[in-house]
What does this fold into?
Amino acid sequence: MKCIFISLLLLCSSLFVCCHSQSPKQSAATETFPPEISVRQADIRYAEGFKLDYRQGYILLRIQDPQSPNSSEYCFALRQKGTTPPIPTGVTPLDLPINRFICMTSLQLSNFIRLKATEKVVGISSTRFLKNKKIRQQMAEGKTQKIGIEGNFDPEIIMSLAPDVILISPFKQGGYDAMKEVDIPLIPHLGYKETTPLGQAEWIKLIGLLTGKEKEASEIFNGIENRYNTLKKRTANLQSRPVVLSGEIHGGTWYAVGGRSFLAQVFQDAGADYFLKDDLRSGGIHLDFETVYNQADRADYWRILNSFPGNYSYEALKAQDARYADFRAFRQKGVIYCNMREKAYYEEMPMEPDVLLSDFIKVFHPELLPDYTPVYYNLLKE
It folds into this structure.
């Protein structure tokens, strides 16, 4: 394993360190990590996007896109404040605990909300549909500020906040070149790239470690894991499995996700089959209407997540595209709906996959959860 520097324009920042196996095109200086100083690996059971290697006096944090095993890894040496253990040359050191963060996504923010550590968030990139009362209060008091949106960040505001680190999503829209002069470590948070609900939720362990709440994070995740897997067992042997369609048309194209995605896994665990379950892709995909209709015209349910301004109904759905009414799930009132204007979906759901699973089980197999009240998704009735 090797470490090399990459520039901000390539992905994020010169403060990232990229570690990967040697390649014929690799020309930068490298540093080999001595394997003998490894003490233990952290217990990361589901997340595939980060690893924690406990070494002598520090923890080597390695982050890599879980959907691309050949992509670059980013390395940081996590050490306790006031200590100066020897670390590999070129690896960015981070002193723990970290007290001032900038978050770029609601998913990142969800980790802080669940850890009750929102006071450590001094900057966020967007307030659209922001529901959390504590964050809103911090913004009203000037303790947390908006730094702009992806592609249009304000370096002066970022500098004025004096963050210790900035959590980023390097494979999204970006705009991180605006930060190349601020000289602040940028840490990729790739929870959104995980393909399983528990994998996404397990990123709270990383935030817990960075904030000095490692024990609390482990306890929170263990509770999520136990509840999720208990629910999953209840649907494991069901003979009847409804088929679920997902997505809508945007700009003339139907946006969906592949059969190896987070959403497909939740449907499977809830006792249903995603209409693209045989598709081997894990990310977002674009399809034409005819392709979707040919595969899902007989689907039992149709999951929709949007931010419709007003009362969403079957008439509102049909008004978006008259062809929607041809789907069986539309005709038989099988639309499962969540409105992000009303629900704190991306602020809370990443840390509540067990609740999301319960919502879908309630729809697909209501007899299994007769007394449960859905939190995010409900059957659209009107």
In short: The two ends are 57 Å apart (CA to CA).
